[in-house]
Amino acid sequence: MAESEPSYIDYEVFLDPGFSPASFANSLVVATNNATDSPLDLSTPLSRVLFDLQEIDTHIHTLTSKSALPLLSHTRDQTAAAGKILQQSEEQIAAVTQGYERLEREVLRKWETADEARLAAEKSLATVRLTRTVGRCLNLGRQLESQLAEMNGRGSTTATTTSGEASGREDFRALERAAYTILNMRRMFLATAEGEEGHGLDRVKVVRTLRSDLLNPAESLVKSRAQQAINRFSMSSISIGSQAPSGYKQSRDTRARLTSAVTTLYVLSPMPKTMIPAAEYRPELLQSTLHGYMHTAIGTSLTALSRAFTVLPTLERTLSDLSARCQDIVALEYILGNTKLPSHPMLLSSLERETIETQAPRKPTNLLQLVLTSLDTPSLPSYFWRSLASSLAGRVQEILQRGGVSARTLRSNRERLRGDIKDCVLRGSLLPTASGMVDKGRGEEGLTVGNWEREAAVMISSVAGAL
What we know:
One of its GO terms (biological process) is intra-Golgi vesicle-mediated transport. The protein has about 475 residues and is mainly α. Among the domains are: about 10-65; about 285-465, no CATH class. Helix content is about 70%, strand content about 0%. It contains 15 helices and 2 strands. The protein has helices at about 10-15, 20-30, 45-65, 70-150, 170-190, 205-230, 245-270, 285-310, 315-335, 350-355, 365-375, 380-400, 405-410, 415-430, 455-465; strands at about 275, 345-350. A two-stranded parallel sheet has the order 1-2. It is elongated and about 150 Å long.
């Protein structure tokens, strides 16, 4: 049709995808004006554009007038086809809508109901678990109160003998049982992660009250009682003589008290965060208490011995007390050596350890090995004598530097001091007779004299070396 009615307008320019109105307008202005004209004449290019627009409008009108019937037929066909497509689409949409409504009735609403039931069941289960945990906490708290009452001599009738006397052994075991009860409660309060036993306990007021009003004071009390039992431990002060049955009972009670105390501090020491072998566990509370006991014994002995060197008539009594104090340390070592590592719920047992460790080094099997390792010493009496000797030389030197009667008396009794100190060391390195731990048929002289000659020499040199 464009060929039957030629036009001067180049339609290809306008139909080009890269056509730019600004560039076309600029070309018209440049074609109708000189570059040096000022001002530019825009009426001519504007008339050209308007004329072209009129020509294009006339051409479009002519084409649409001649092709009206084909255009209307094409539009009618397109409208009819669109109507059929719309009708079929509406039918399909209606079918899909009905299917969705059916699916919603049969699945979605039932799923919503089931999901509500699931949430209710989960909350009920969490409530049951929390209730059980709270009930267990309360039972442990009641049990702890009973054990504290037994510790204070107000326990059940099992804590008394048929004669009405208090059974000390039962009280000591109550201290140990209270420690395990406290440990179990602490484990529950630490297991607060999702899915663990203690999850949600911190939101229960009665549990918070139980923890603040019972658990924390009880733990402090039990630790204090155990530390006092260790700090006051003494076997050498037990009298036997004519009251042998009474002395044996005191010895038995003292051993039981110490065993319960060390077990309590072993259990109540800071817990490991994960399960570890017992050999890797370091009971800091127990070690620090035993270290304090040793250092107190060394410090007290050093002060008493230094004072005795200035007042020599009191030396015999001081050396006797010194040997008795060392005998207590020997008894402590003996009891620790015969006390196996207590069971701990956060530690792997020996059987479990063997399953995960193929080549395990030599592990400690009793509490004594843990203490000796922490002090870096082969034995507690050796540590006592060597630590005392290392500090004693300076004290003797101070006495000699001050001069006077004390210094002259020490120098004149040098040989006597040698014998007395040696006897003190050898006597103090024996187990106390009243402890009931000395084997029958073995005299005191045949026990450990040969093993403590070196410690005796160290003590003698610390004094005689300065003299």
